[in-house]
Amino acid sequence: MARVPRATRRNPRKIPRQTRSKATVDAIVEAAARILERDGYARASVNRIAALAGVSVGSLYQYFPTKEAVVAAVAARLGQDMLVVFGRDLAELAFIPIEQGIQGIVAQAMAAFRVRPKLRRVLREEAPELHPLVDVRDFDAQLADVLVAYFEFGHAGASNRPRNTRLAVGLLMAAVEAIADTFAGDPTIDQEELVRETAALVARYLRAEP
Questions:
Q1: pLDDT band with cut points at 50, 70 and 90 for residue 166
Q2: Exposure pattern of 171-186 as b/e (b: 16+ CB <10 Å)?
Q3: What global pTM score does this model have?
Q4: Is the dihedral of CA 102, 105, 108, 114 positive or negative?
Q5: How many whole angstroms from its chain centre is CA 206?
Q6: Sign for the pseudo-dihedral over CA of 18, 21, 23, 25
Q7: What single-letter DSSP state applies at residue 128?
């Protein structure tokens, strides 16, 4: 088999147009996601992905030239799914005072970080070279842009914090993701209380004297 050029290794071979083709691609991407979650990147072979998807390896190669291209599609799909969850009712938060909006922002972000967290960890830790190379910007970059706009434009002058908005957003995202990852699914934790306490933590950070 001819070697696939490096520049195209992570790109789909062709874009599905018909309903049946889209269903095939969806099955391949979902099968890859399930194998990545269960067994990790190293064991997510093209043969295993095709078998779980119920398609031939030849059919998979019609759409994806390499395993890397399939995994890049999984990463893009995950980012899109997380953004859908984060974006629900988000517009309403833009028009209320930041002190009230923080809890809603935290709740939306934590819900997004709970979308297939194991898959997200595999993509970030076992295949990091793929993470910044998907065709669309990943969830982190888009979430950061939304939050920066929220603090800088929607609530300008509401607080003297943060001075370096991009850095502050990065810190807040890392903290919220870590909290969600640590406590999500814990039956001993009241998830609504977890959101409130996390929002209180964020609010204290934003109000702190520089």
A1: confident
A2: ebbeebbebbbebeee
A3: 0.77
A4: negative
A5: 24
A6: negative
A7: G
